[in-house]
């Protein structure tokens, strides 16, 4: 279970990220915060498939409420206002086994946009316990479209971005759960 406090204030997201108005310095602890359990810090990651080697990363598993695993990605952790603002906007591609996990202090209404995105993504909102509250399939902005005009809202403390239609392919839906270590 992920821990955290609920709040009702909203946030605006940029490039699939939230704005710098979230003043959190440290992320809330997830359900399992033990060390050495498969979590991976990409500061020393030499994986040839590392998408964001400058970010810390963690394995995010998506499971049904009964615990059946639906999918897994290695996610870069965006837990500071600067990392959250940049998000995936500076990324050329996103492999099926990679993602980005946005970590906030509290559960809030949040809005993400597709600023400077060159590919579509799924945006998965989850509450303080990792329970998925909303999923959006955010298509790539068209040649004459401003990605900032594409908005995707949800309520959550955690937001996972994965490859476009990743959730649909795996049968992920609201009520399923994100599991990860920070």
Which word captures the global form? globular
Strand content: 35-45%
- Please state the average pLDDT score: 78
Question: What pattern of helices and strands is seen along the backbone?
Answer: EEEEHEEEEHE
What is the CATH architecture descriptor?
Sandwich
Helix content: under 10%
User: Treating each run of at least 4 consecutive H or I residues as one helix, how many helices?
Assistant: 2
Secondary structure class reads mainly beta
According to CATH, what is the class? Answer: Mainly Beta
Structure, explained:
- This protein is mainly β and 182 residues long.
- The chain has a single domain, classed as Protein of unknown function DUF192 (Jelly Rolls).
- The chain is 6% helix and 41% strand.
- The protein has two helices and nine strands; from the N terminus they run ββββαββββαβ.
- Strands 1, 2, 3, 4, 5, 6, 7, 8 and 9 form a nine-stranded mixed β-sheet that branches.
Put the structure in a nutshell:
This protein is mainly beta and 182 residues long.
Keywords, separated by commas or semicolons:
single chain, 182 residues, mainly beta, Jelly Rolls, nine-stranded mixed sheet, 2 helices, 6% helix, 41% strand, disordered N terminus
Helices and strands, with pairings:
Layout: E1 5-14, E2 17-18, E3 57-63, E4 69-78, H1 81-86, E5 98-113, E6 121-126, E7 132-138, E8 151-163, H2 166-170, E9 177-179
Parallel strand pairs: 1-5, 4-5
Antiparallel strand pairs: 1-2, 3-4, 3-9, 5-8, 6-7, 6-8
């Amino acid at each position: 279970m992920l821990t955290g406090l609920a709040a009702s204030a909203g946030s605006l997201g940029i490039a699939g990220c939230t704005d710098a108005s979230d003043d959190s310095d440290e992320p809330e602890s997830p359900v399992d915060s033990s060390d050495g359990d498969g979590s991976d810090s990409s500061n020393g990651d030499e994986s040839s498939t590392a998408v964001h080697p400058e970010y810390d990363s963690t394995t995010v598993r998506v499971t049904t409420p009964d615990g059946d695993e639906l999918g897994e990605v290695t996610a870069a952790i965006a837990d500071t206002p600067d990392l959250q603002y940049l998000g995936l906007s500076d990324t050329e591609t996103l492999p099926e086994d990679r993602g980005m996990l946005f970590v906030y202090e509290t559960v809030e209404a949040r809005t993400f946009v597709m600023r400077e995105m060159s590919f579509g993504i799924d945006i998965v909102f989850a509450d303080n316990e990792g329970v998925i509250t909303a999923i959006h399939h955010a298509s790539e902005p068209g040649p004459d479209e401003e990605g900032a005009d594409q908005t995707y809202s949800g309520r959550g403390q955690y937001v996972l971005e994965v490859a476009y239609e990743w959730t649909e392919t795996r049968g992920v839906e609201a009520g399923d759960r994100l599991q990860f270590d920070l």
